[in-house]
Amino acid sequence: METRHLVRRIDDFINYLKKEKNYSVHTLRNYRSDLVKFFEYLEEQGAVVIDKNTVSHYISFLLKYGFDSRSAARKLSTIKSFFKTLKRLDIIEGNPVLGIKTPKIKKHLPGFLTYEQIRQGFDNIGDIRDRAIMELLYSCGLRASELVGLNIEDIDFNRDEVRVRGKGRKERIVPL
Predict the structure, then answer these.
(1) How buried is residue 169: exposed, middle or buried, by Cβ count under 10 Å (0-12/13-18/19+)?
(2) Per-residue model confidence (pLDDT) at position 163
(3) What is the pLDDT of residues 89-143, one digit of tens each?
(4) Which site from 9, 14, 116, 135 is most exposed, i.e. has the minimal number of CB atoms within 10 Å?
(5) C-alpha to C-alpha distances, 171 to 52, 151, 162, 164, 165, nearest whole angstrom
(6) Residues 38-64: pLDDT tens digits?
(7) How many CB atoms lie within 10 A of CB 27?
(8) pTM above 0.90, yes or no
(9) How far apart are CA 151 and CA 93, in angstroms?
(10) Closest CA to 117 of 140, 134, 136
(11) Angle 52-64/25-45 helices, nearest 10 degrees?
């Protein structure tokens, strides 16, 4: 697949994700940036055709020059999504990224607070609004971004439930 024809398809891809998949502005910006940098790399390397080796070399380049495996994996995911979408839309015939393995991502457990630390935190909150915020975060297991996006009508006091919009604007009901 020739690179110069595909660069023009970045906008088509971003528009598809925006309209059909309802991706956030931040995700779209990151996808665009990942693809622009990928094609800039190909241009610098003088690559005319994109194939499995070209993409694998790009990922190796990222890992060699300071990107961690999680960032390289995300960039590869963007590239895979780009070609998968172009194939689905019949813009390209073959998919040059089929079979490329995602870099291994080191998994580490998130830190946690002890019961005593949580109790002390709640004891130090004087304002009722701040206490309500902390209660919602803790008891419902909300992300800070989910809490910020809550409106009063999202809380059903009769049923003791909260309607939460998470990542990708997906909704879930959480008991209070």
Answers:
(1) exposed
(2) 93
(3) 888 888 888 888 888 887 777 788 888 988 888 888 888 989 888 888 888 888 8
(4) 116
(5) 37, 13, 10, 5, 4
(6) 999 999 999 888 889 999 999 999 999
(7) 17
(8) no
(9) 47
(10) 134
(11) 100
Tokens of 24: 């956030």
Q: Which two tokens stand for residue 39?
A: 């094609």
What's the per-residue H, E or C state across the chain? Answer: CEHHHHHCCHHHHHHHHHHHCCCCHHHHHHHHHHHHHHHHHHHHHCCCECCHHHHHHHHHHHHHCCCCHHHHHHHHHHHHHHHHHHHHCCCCCCCCCCCCCCCCCCCCCCCCCCHHHHHHHHHCCCCHHHHHHHHHHHHHCCCHHHHHCCCHHHEECCCCEEEEECHHHCEEEEEC
Question: What is the token pair recorded at 48?
Answer: 């005319």
Predicted local confidence at residue 64, as pLDDT: 92
